[in-house]
Amino acid sequence: MSAASLTRREREIAVLAARGLTNKEIASSLVISVRTVDNHLSNTYAKLGIATRGELALVLTDDNG
C-alpha cells in the first residue's frame, strides 16, 4: 500500500517521524499527546506493512518520486 492511503494527520505525523523527530517532539509541535502520535504511527505502519522509521522514510520518498 502507498502513503496515499494515509489520512492527512497520519501523513503529517509520518513526515515528521521520517525527518527524525521523536514522538515527544512530534506531539509537542502538533499539540497532541504522545499516545496519539503512537497510535497514528501504529496505524501508519500497519497500513503500509512496515515496522521502522527507516522503512517509513523510504515509502514516503518513493511516493514523492
From TrEMBL:
GO terms for molecular function: DNA binding. GO terms for biological process: regulation of DNA-templated transcription. Keywords: DNA-binding, Transcription, Transcription regulation. Residues 1-64 form the HTH luxR-type domain. PANTHER family: DNA-BINDING TRANSCRIPTIONAL ACTIVATOR DEVR_DOSR. This is Helix-turn-helix transcriptional regulator. The lineage of its organism: Bacteria, Bacillati, Actinomycetota, Actinomycetes, Pseudonocardiales.
